[in-house]
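user: can you give me the structure for this one chain? tokens are fine.
assistant: on it. calling the predictor now.
[tool input]
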Amino acid sequence: MSATGPSISEQLARIRRGASEIIVEAELRAKLERSFKAHAPLKVKLGLDPTAPDLHLGHTVVLQKLRDFQELGHQVIIIIGDFTGMIGDPTGRSETRRPLTWDEIRDNAETYKAQLGKVLDMGRTQVQFNSEWLGPLSFEQIIRETARLTVARMLQREDFAARYASGRAISLHEFLYPIAQGYDSVALGADVELGGTDQTFKDSTESKRCRRASATPSASPSRRPTCTASSCR
């Protein structure tokens, strides 16, 4: 980050544009101030599960917001959820997703990387697969992670609550999805999380996980990108 770059107010104005929400804006401002004074870019993360062969139009909105952060001088990190893709994002689902095979996930991921370059400067974009840190976790570590959330908290999700109320099945592995994605932010030391308005539960789960892992809370933007201020550093 350059001391001659955009001011904090100018950065916030650009980040707010087109975002439906910033959770929590005071935390995001504090992080921008720290970044500006230290001449160090924030780590801004977006997670994408390769559950389909192509990115869709909805992704473009949040990718444009990611491009805003990139043009403001921050470090953009794309997480390809090859490991979480085996679970499948339960958001908005009335039934359990079919788990994808490794071959399907890897094929989709390669397509994603090619399409991301249509919006982002890939020369300044870090791309990582979350199997790098989720794959090596021991069963003991997974138990310790699951102990951080309660079933009651999980059932606050509208989709889970609706399925539970109607007697439709909720597979246990679906509860692991927001936990795994929260671990992504911790593993990367992410400062800012981008996501859609349909991902608010996941983003708040990640933010709380970050607070337990660090004295500094993390900032996360959400779709229309809800700029959610959350940090794991």
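assistant: here you go. Strands lie at 22-23, 43-48, 75-80, 125-129, 192-196, 220-222, 228-229. The first helix runs from residue 8 to 16.
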